Prior knowledge:
The complex is a heterodimer. Chain A is an alpha/beta fold. Chain A has helices at about 1-25, 45-65, 80-95, 110-115, 140-155, 175-185, 205-215, 240-245, 260-265, 280-295, 315-325; strands at about 30-35, 65-70, 95-100, 120-125, 135-140, 160-165, 190-200, 225, 250-255, 275, 305, 310. Chain A folds into 2 domains: about 20-140 and about 280-305, 3-Layer(aba) Sandwich (Rossmann fold); about 140-275 and about 310-325, Response regulator (Rossmann fold, 3-Layer(aba) Sandwich). The longest helix of chain A is centred in the N-terminal third of the chain and has 25 residues, at about 1-25. In chain A, about 50% of the residues are buried. Chain B is mostly helical. Chain B is about 75% helix and about 0% strand. Chain B has 15 helices and 2 strands. Chain B has helices spanning about 5-15, 20-25, 30-45, 55-80, 85-100, 105-130, 135-155, 165-170, 185-200, 205-215, 215-220, 225-250, 265-275, 285-305, 310-334; strands at about 175, 180-185. Chain B has a two-stranded antiparallel sheet. In chain B, helix 5 packs across helix 12 (about 225-250) and helix 13 crosses helix 14 (about 285-305). Chain B is globular, with a radius of gyration of 21 Å. The interface of A and B includes residues 214 and 238 of A.
Amino acid sequence: MRRGKWIWIVVCACLVWGIALGYAGAQEKKKLTFAWIPKALNNPVFELGRDGAFAKAKELSETTDYEVEVLYVGSVASDAAEQVRVVEDVIARGVDGIGISCNDPDALVDVINKAVDAGIPVMTWDADAPNSKRFTYLGVSNYDGGKAAAELLIRYMGEKGKVALLTGVPGAFNLEERIRGFKDVIKNYPEIEIVTTVACYDDINKGVEVVEEVMQAYPDLTGWFFVGLWPLFAERGSMPLWEEAAKAGRVKTVAFDTLPVELEYLKEGLLVGLVGQKYWGWGYDTIQMLFDHIVNGKQFPSWTDSGMDIVTIHNVDAMIEAWKTSDFTKPLPPAFPEG
Amino acid sequence: MVVEHPELSSQEERYVEPSFAVRLARNQLAALLFILFGMVMVLSLLTRTFLTANNIFNVLRAFSWIAIASFGQSIVIISGGIDLSSGSNMAFSGIITGMLLNSGYSITFSVILGLAVTLLVGFFNGIMVSKAKLPPFIATLGTMSIIRGFCYGMTEGWPIRSLPRGFLALGQTDIHFFLWRIPLPAILMVIFAILCFILLDRTKLGYHTYAVGGNEYAAGLAGINTGRVKNIAFTLSGLLAGIGGILMTARLGVAAPTAAQGYELDIIAAAVIGGISLTGGEGNVWGALIGAAIMQILRNALVLLGFPAYWQPAAIGAVIIGAVMIDMYRKRKV
């Protein structure tokens, strides 16, 4: 009796699956499918890139003879091994192009080459795998971002003072590059001292704690560089010491990324500057480049600079507007209009 | 060769009234408090900021939610199990409550529902262990992942913000007590510690919990409903982790799906440092409270002392091992 029931369930499932397959096959058109693979599905910034990718796909479907579809797939958490599996699945499924942000520069080389050998062009964005056969890398230099952050801070804080750094997971390549860039600029100002570097392991709670602890340990602190935005996700009132010092203008803070929460802080004057990647462009530009490469045979240099957004009080409104309308196609006004 | 007979010597000792020092050394809590005070003394000498009211209350608040979750964890460990889902539960209660609050429900309703959900998760863990006979490690490893998946899925990865002021007050209020302003979570932590202590030390259910953890088979033969005891232990663990999560969410003003990731290990470590044996049947919640305090003071100290961030995990690991080793040494010695 029991076994009979199971057989029926399996038969029904197979039937449904078969019908679905047949239906999908019947819909065949002149179609391009691109897989857009972020480092992780659990990081909200990638969703902005995904929206950019979908927007570009829609735009291309409307303006060209192709129907462009974007597959948004990835591992839930940042994990190179899991990402390799996802790429393999995508190859097996068969797509026309892949845009990927690599969790590890080396771990993904093999599977990217496998895709290219199978006739699927691959490009990387945000995080590269330089030794693979990908045709280009769209990204920023985190090192330059760190330098830009240091220059922003010096502009507001002046050429002397005590600075603390907040990082996420020690050893994360992009964060370390930002810190290296930041320190290389600060080195030229002997009167600026980096008093401590603290880590919060990408955890909002720990970020809030260590910022407050540093504020206690170094009452004469004049500058902060948040290498990511972790503690800024928390609501007002969770970092009273930092807030008070920032409001009074004693501590100037520069942070990475340009998410709406940070823009609010900037508008209130608690942050003085933001350096951010063009998340929207991760998707929007990647899909355009894949399309140009595959349809028009366009060649790209090995590294395509996507540029950085520098946000200060002078152009924060334009950035807030872009987030509200989900339209990041307009260029930002200059961060320092006076030059 | 002279062979020492520990049984013999202890038998002799039994007739002697133990000196105050021996009684103190025998008391596990006293030993833990001694370690704690040692750390406080050293830190107050090394830094000017450690022994300020502001810092002490910050530390108290920072470990209060870990400690509260750790009380539940302690009950489970004493009953012979382990609960790996407490970190996920902490995030889950915050997310459920945050979502309800942002859809306009009242604070009381949202918090109660958030807690009810983690209580159910705990109950589900209990059922899997007591009825389906899954090893607790595997059952809760599964729920840890399932609940984390729900956290990501329900929020699509975005943190929930703009929670009402009244809710944030749960984590951000300070209660005036003589000269001090004590954070509300720290007071709740002490209240829950007392409640859990009463449950474990003064009720039949508490004795049964120790009995089941000490020797499940014997407890069963003695007529204790072991399944029911385990069920209650896991349910309480879910509930207490949920309470910790809500306090943390209220303090930060944000319910992130990535919140409290990996905290289950801190929660378990707090219990173990506090002398709660992983083999079950031993220890009490005051130990867990002190264990959580030791870990947080250490983290705080490393920042105040300017210890390089890259080396901090190593220092924390060393202290966990050190604290447990001192405890083991004390047990053998006395």
